[in-house]
Amino acid sequence: MDVLKVNDLVKHYGPVKALNGIGFSVPRGTVFGILGPNGSGKTTLLGIIMDVLKTTRGAYNFFGEGTGADTRRKIGTLLETPNFYHYLTAVQNLKIAASVKQRGEEDIDRVLEMVNLHQRKNSAFSTYSLGMKQRLAIASALLGNPEVLVLDEPTNGLDPVGIAEIRELIKKLHKEGKTIIMASHMLDEVEKVCTHVAILKKGNIMASGHVDEIFQHSDMIEIDASDRKALAAVMNQYPGVEQIREEESGLVVYFPPGTVTLAPVNAYCFKNGITLSKLLIKKKSLESKFIELTN
Ligand code: ATP
How far apart are CA 274 and CA 255, in angstroms? Predict the structure, then answer.
């Protein structure tokens, strides 16, 4: 089940082509990173899906439902650091945010606990570190317990401790079953926290998929058979296999670069009593492409 589906999205600002017809899907329960250098179109993309910008062409929908108000209530967003009142406390600020968003106040303690600001909930916002301010912003996005969170560069401007805290928070939210869509220009951040990634360059998607696949040094094949368990057990014994991962469409098997050919795999499976219903080479490592584009 996809939380978000984006189809052939185009955005021009006058002569500037910010998005050139991009498409991707965000599966439920993932931490989905939109990775790209400055100016690649990340903020434009998030602005469109959050309805603060109009598309030039193309469509998207959430939960297969659409983009109406009821659907949007299931989405919490942090597009830029919100304007909290400096002289008010965290609780007072969240009360205002809750009323603006028409979301209940009963949630405030829960979200402050979640972002680990509970002990400082009665301190004035002005006494918070940058990291705490950012966590309060995420707490605000969590009001109403949305199923999906959209975050634009959530660690921007933070020191290493602040970055680590946000990273832990994202992991915690992911464990709770939330889907998180976040933009970032840092490969490292995306590798550490995201399960899936779409790489954006000059308004085009260079690659998208599971991080293991996108950042792997390995070659991958995809295979399938009627009994996947038996197939996985047999392939585990095949020389050179580094890892096997199950996807909806089949098993993805990882090999060191340049060591896999298909015919011997087919023969080996057949010899072990398995008839393959699928056998193909998946794309190879794209890490080099990303390094090229960030340079
Ligand atoms: P950053 O990390 O710097 O925010 P980004 O990947 O989020 O970059 P966008 O901000 O979406 O990229 O910008 C994509 C392109 O669109 C850039 O070339 C940018 O200059 C241009 N752009 C963005 N907003 C506008 C605007 N309001 N008017 C004209 N051009 C714009």
Answer: 20
What pLDDT score was predicted for residue 116?
A: 93
More confident residue, 156 or 215: 156
Contacts of 78 (CB under 8 A, 6+ apart): 137, 138, 140, 141, 149, 150, 151, 152, 154
Q: Using a 6 Å cutoff on CB, does residue 185 contact ligand 1?
A: yes
Residue ending a domain, among 166, 191, 214, is 214
Summarised one tens digit per residue, pLDDT across range 57-97 is: 999 999 998 888 889 989 999 887 677 999 999 999 999 99
Mean predicted confidence (pLDDT) in 101-120: 89
- Domain-ending residue, one of 154, 186, 214: 214
Residues 147 and 277 occupy one common structural domain: no
Closest ligand 1 atom to residue 153 Cα is 2
What atom in ligand 1 is closest to the CA of residue 44?
A: 11
Protein residue whose Cα sits closest to atom 28 of ligand 1: 13
Atom of ligand 1 minimally distant from the CA of 43: 7
Report CA-CA distances (Å) from 117 to 89, 93, 107.
Answer: 11, 13, 14
For ligand 1, atom 16, name the residue with the nearest CA.
Answer: 18
Asked whether the predicted pLDDT for residue 12 surpasses 60, the reply is: yes
Name the closest-CA residue to atom 18, ligand 1: 39
Nearest CA to ligand 1 atom 29: 13
Place of tokens 């998207």: 60
Ligand 1, residue 152: give the atom nearest the CA: 7
Q: Identify whether residues 139 and 160 lie together within a single domain.
A: yes
pLDDT of residue 293: 56
